[in-house]
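Ticket #4471: structure export looks truncated?
Reporter: QA, pipeline team
Priority: medium

Steps to reproduce: submit the single chain below to the structure queue and open the exported record.
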Amino acid sequence: MATFYSLYAPYLKGVCSLYIIDSNDVKDVLQEALIRILTHVDDFQYQGPGSLQAWAGRIVANEAVRHLKRRQELVELRPELPDMAEEDDPPIADIPPEVIHDMIRQLPTGYRTVFNLYVLEDKSHDEIARMLGITPGTSTSQLCRAKNLLAKMIKAYNQQNQQQR
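Actual output as written to the record:
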């Protein structure tokens, strides 16, 4: 387990921190996920290089979602707000990955969770809806709002960097 931890802990902590903001909660969720990984290692099926990391990452993401559901922090529904028109995708090539990571962490919990599940975990809106106890339409709406908010953050970052040049 020590070898597994030294190899994968930084990656798994990064996955967890995409869902969970509080550093103490990240540690708690990561610990729970590592226990789950250890107790379910017999369920792992090797599918080539990277499959162990991907499998462990999914367990961490699922544990993070369970944590958010227990804390009832999951989805901030704002049905009174109309869906926003989609923003154009701003360029991200010159933005360091850690800045993008921080932008994702700034999203409201519900937006961030749906965004991560859809974009990073490749879940469908039906799967997300089942996981989070929401409708597929709510998942779609939360994703749209998350993307729009991220696009605004990216545009602001790009404008700020352009002015500094």
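Status: closed, not a bug. The export was complete when the record was re-opened. Leaving a note from the reviewer for reference: Residues 136-164 form the longest helix (29 residues).
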